[in-house]
Amino acid sequence: MSEQSSGGGRILPLRPGGVGGPSSRGRRRREPAKARRIWTFAAWVAAALVVVGGSGLGLLWFKLNGNLHGVDVNQALGEDRPKNIDNGSMDILVLGSDSRAGVNSAYGADEGAARSDTAMVVHVYQGHKTASVVSIPRDTLVERPACTDREGGGVPGEQRAMFNTAYEVGGPACAVKTVEAMSGIRMDHYIEVDFTGFTKLVDELGGVSVTTTQPIHDAKSHLNLLPGTHRLDGEQALGLVRTRKSVGDGSDLGRIQLQQAFTKAFIEQVKDVGAFTSPKKLLDLSDAATKAITPDSELDSVNELMGFARGLSSLGAEDVHMITMPVRYDPADPNRVVPVETGARQVWTALKQDRPIPASAVADSAGDQGEAATVVRAAGAAREEAP
Fold this sequence. Notes:
- The protein is α+β, with helices and mostly antiparallel strands.
- It is built from 9 helices and 20 strands.
C-alpha cells in the first residue's frame, strides 16, 4: 500500500497536571438497568467502534440507523467455515481500509481498490472482562483461499499472497475467510473503519493524549512531534498510526507497535470523555461513531450495535493484551514476513480454547520487538482540556 500524506495539524499541549485471560462469553448477556459508560475498541488502531449505551436517544434512532450500512459477510461465506463454538467468548475481525475513494481522496489518488491497512483479531474472553488482540501484519505472505468478491463472483486462491490483498480482491468476506483459514477460528463479527471516519471520531473525542519518548518526524504522514505529552487531533492521530519510516527499524512491524500503543491511549481517552454528563457530547459521539464504521449485517442497527457494545463495557485498556501474530522475515524477500508456524499455532489454539496466549508463542517472533514499542504510550489519567 502506498503511504500518502495525512496532513498534521498543530499540537495542543496539555496543562501540567500470560496475557489477556478468560473471565465468561455470553454473546447475549442480560444488560444492567443502569446505563453503562461508553466503551471503545479502537479499530484502527483500532479501528474504531464507539457505541453509546443508555436510554433517551428516542427519536434520534432513525438518524443514527441511517448512518449504518452493513455488509452481509455470513451470506457471502456460506457454510464452509470453522465451527461456531458457543463458549461465551467472541471473536471480531477489525479492519482499517486504505481506500482513497470519495472523501478519502484527500489522502491520495483513488486507484480503484482498497487494502486492509490495519487488521486485528479481537478475542473477548468468556465473561467479557478481558480481551486479547492479535495484529496481523499486512505484508504477511499467506495462502489466500478461493473466495467470493463484492459482486458475487469467484476469486481464485493464491499461494504466498500478501495478507492485505484479500480485502483488495474480494472485500470483507474474502478478508474474513482468509483470517478464518489462517486461524481456524470463526469470526463472530466484522467491523471496518476508513481514514475519514477515524479522524472525525478522534476529533469528536476532543483528541487523544499520548506521551512520546523521542522525536517523531515523518515526511510521509506530515507528523512532527517532540518528546513529551501531546493532545493529538484526528489528522495527527492518523499520521501516528500510519508512521513507519521514522520510528524503530522502519518496518510495518514497528508501525503496528505504534498502532497498539495508540489503541491503549484511545481507550483511556474514552473513559474520561464524560458523555453521560453532556447530551450534546453523547449525540455527537454517537453520530461520529455510526458514520465511522462499516459493520457486518448483524450489527447494522443502533439496537444491535448497542447490545454488542454493552457486552464489552466493562473492558478497560488494562484489560486488553495486544500482540502481533508471530512472524519472521521471509528469507526470499526481506520486505515480507511469514508466520512462525509454531508460535502462530499456539496463539490461535489458545484463543480457540478461550485461554490466555502463552508468552512462549511470541518468543521467536520478529513482531513485538525493537524500540518502536517504547516510543509512544498513553499520557496517563491526568488529562485537562487544552486552552
